[in-house]
Amino acid sequence: MTLEATTSLPEVMAFLADAPVMTKSRSIETSGKSDTKQLRVAIVHYWLVSMRGGEKVVEELCRMFPQADIFTLVCNPDRISDFLKTRNIRTSFLQKIPGAKRHYTKMLPLMPFALEQFDLQEYDLVLSSESGPAKGVITRADALHICYCHSPMRYIWDQFHVYRLGLPWLGRALMSITAPMLRAWDVTTASRVDVFVANSGYVANRIQRFYDRDSAVIHPPVATDDFAVGKGRGEFYLYAGQLTAYKRPDIAVRACSETGRKLIVIGEGEQTAYLKSIAGPTVQFLGHQPFSVLRDHLSRCRALLFPGTEDFGILPVEAMASGRPVLAFDAGGARETVSSPHVGLRFALQSKESLLDTMVTFEEIEDDFDPNAIREHALKFSSMVFRERLNALIEEQLSRRTDASASSFQGRSH
After folding, report:
1. If one looks up domain 224-380 in CATH, what number appears?
2. How many whole angstroms separate alpha carbon 213 and alpha carbon 204?
3. What's the pTM?
4. Which of these, 324, 86, 130, 154, lies nearest to 220 by C-alpha position?
5. Which distant-in-sequence residues (6+ apart) come within 8 Å of 12 by Cβ?
6. DSSP H helices in 212-305
């Protein structure tokens, strides 16, 4: 690019000062359209110690940007997918602490320091995956930082007292001391994000409440192609997922036990013993099961019971991808997934009685549900839809930066 003869010396010096940054950034191109394959991309995820919804999002981000490097606080290679094991994963100093792979949550006060040690200066695009702390990384001034937020950190915000009460006295004391500082850091680091993307409208509202930031809503990817409509109608209700208090599996267990309805429970957690103690003979606990068993039961159940409040909730979409209706508590992401009486019903109160009333209504119209129509609804949340929508957002943001940079340069050159 040549400078016009009328350009003043101060303007030339200003341009030269900016030139190294503009050259380093691959997002600024004269064509006005960015080639994302040429970008240096960093994916920042809080921790890689299991394969749940957040990690499935990371997998999709890696497919979108195969050149990306992954940065995470702690990684347990034995608990992640073979696909993620092939990626370039960089961990923080927390990884070197003995027992970090198991007790990483106890290191929450150290996580801000660990995140800020990641050197991301060579990256043009930073995609942070936030549920635990991830968005607090420090990026290059002209880099684009997009945060895909599964949830603002529950344990320092709206679920603070729930998590705190579950700790021994020393843990409660430490959490009471450190939580105010972590909240301040969490709010401050929201300004480091250029664009927030929420995984549901429910989470978008929480981002607005805690960070005072707007966000685009892009639902997380669901591997709908991994599920298929089964044959016939099942004879049992299904509960699947972690057996923890906030997911309220007790509601499903009590409702079916007291009315003699058959319920199969897939999953494990700290409430397992308690749930077995209140369960009747029609409730069967299968414990943790491989994906093949879960998929089979999803395709053969009468309906999935979903009594908890989730930020999004992938399992109801997986049930619908199997052609089965969902009976869900009317809160959280279920309002966006179980969004039509043609795919399931929502009950108003998080109680056994409210679920039972809904089960009675469901059984009166059970034969009216069309499994193929239910699956068609689930395809709105497919991985392909996720990639298309997120890629469009990234392209739009990069294009805006290209236009802004071009306008800025033209302003200095006249």
Report:
1. 3.40.50.2000
2. 9
3. 0.82
4. 130
5. 3
6. 249-259, 272-278, 291-300
